[in-house]
Amino acid sequence: MRQSEKVFITLIISLICILLCIAGSLALGSRSVSPGELIDALFLGKAGTFGQIVVRERIPRTVFSLIAGAALGISGALMQAITRNPIADPSVLGVNTGASLFVVMGIAFLNIQTAGQYIVLALLGAAITAVFVYGIGSLGAGGATPIKLALAGSATSAALSSFVSAIMLPRSNVMDNFRFWQVGSVSGANWTNIRAVLPLLIIGFLISILLAPVLNAMALGDEMASVLGVHTGIARAIGALAGVVLCGAITAVAGPIGFVGLMVPHVMRLLLGPDQRIIMPMSAVGGALILTAADIAGRILGNPGELESGVVTAFLGAPVLIIIAVKSKGSSL
């Protein structure tokens, strides 16, 4: 089968699954909705019955699940490409936890309340943590190997999580505002939050698409990429910035949802090969599918309450991380 056919088939199957997940996200939950009420609420503009009202209230959550999953998928693909590390991911590298720490500090000490303030602090925390982890992982012989980066990220994440707990525990108001961040959830999404993060996500997505040919060259090695005219330092900085913007913006709204950025690009590489021009957009599609499906699974498994989507993605992603780490044996992409 030709590459173009594989990409087309994978895209069509993914889009069909996304459509099914959208219907499931709008219809399933503590109060299930009939197909008739779903159609009336979506296409006829009706909101008279309780079920139709439920559907209209679930729309922002569903939209955010899609864009958040897409952003995390692209962020993971960028981080894996610029570090040539198959286990690079916002959660594995501690970037999500860094964003969380800065937001909880803002809540506790600066009394932040608006979505814009959350996003600024989350981006700042994510950027500082990314630089710190990469710097620590680059020390010693061999530079930034996959195992060293994973260990540096895990240690940093554990330390930052302790700081988060130390700030929250004595302050009940901070704990109430921040509780959903501890596991990551899309349940608090609304149109205000979506409008706040959407411009950043669009910028990050465009950068990732434009950077894809450069990342293909860098996969050949820095020396070969330099011969081809690529400024590897600048390319890495731009790619890292885009990845931090994508995961930081989502973390500001949903908390640290892990493993989406790890699983999706890895699966897409196995299915479609290493071409970043394909991996980037397909990681967006796959990320949207995975996170929306995880949100639905959390509602079904936790019924009559719900299991947070971050718990579901961690349950799925932890075995994937172990498999990748064993198979990579410390090698680069």
From TrEMBL:
Question: Where, per UniProt, does this protein localize?
Answer: Cell membrane
Q: List GO BP terms, alphabetically.
A: siderophore-iron import into cell
Q: Which InterPro entries match?
A: ABC_BtuC-like, ABC_transptr_permease_BtuC
The keyword Cell membrane is assigned to this record: yes
Name the predominant localization. membrane
Transmembrane ranges, per UniProt, are 7-28, 63-81, 93-112, 118-137, 149-169, 196-221, 233-258, 278-297, 309-326
Q: Does the keyword Cell membrane apply?
A: yes
The terms describing its cellular component in GO are: plasma membrane
**What molecular function terms (GO) are annotated for this protein?**
transmembrane transporter activity
In terms of PANTHER family, this protein maps to: FE(3+) DICITRATE TRANSPORT SYSTEM PERMEASE PROTEIN FECC-RELATED (PTHR30472:SF1), FERRIC ENTEROBACTIN TRANSPORT SYSTEM PERMEASE PROTEIN (PTHR30472)
Q: How is this protein named in the record? A: Iron complex transport system permease protein
Pfam families listed in its UniProt record: FecCD (PF01032)
Keywords in alphabetical order, please: Cell membrane, Membrane, Transmembrane, Transmembrane helix, Transport
